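sanity check both lines:
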Amino acid sequence: MFEHFTPDARGAVSDAATEAGERGDRRIGTEHLLLGVLRQPGPAAALGADVASARAALDALDLAALAALGIDARGVARPAIPASRKRAPFTSGARAVVPGALGAARSAGARRVTPRTPPPRPARPRPPRPRGRSHRPPRRRPREGPGRTAGARGRVRPRPTRPRTPQAPSGGFRAPCRAPAVTARGPPPPPTSP
């Protein structure tokens, strides 16, 4: 995907990763992509914005979000965050912007994405996918009851009703074979009638 980006556009993406690291964020979001684009001299001048004002607006949004949760973070200095050796992953919104920028460049008739490529139309935000366990309630099974036994690890299994017989080659069940017993002397004598 990034092979269709110009070196300036690739620099904007790497600047976005730098911005995420400086802010202490674990993932690269759309706000970091915007800050990365504003670090480039051409788009910042075209938009009439600078990185410092965008950072201040982002910090104000962070404070407002924390205040909505009842946390007063004004005047609290952020501790120094050690740089991570891992590459930060993109959020789902940032992952949607990158192919959208390529589509916007192609619809404008360009072959490559530049920092001046107009951003794609904002998509509807999807609800976040739950991580780990599902949020659905667990299925209820009776622990024990008629016809059920608790196996290892508390799993409930049906109680066997009859022993299984080996399957015939055709795939169906065959009846147990009760062949007459053969002894060393020969077959058993025929039954006598009274």
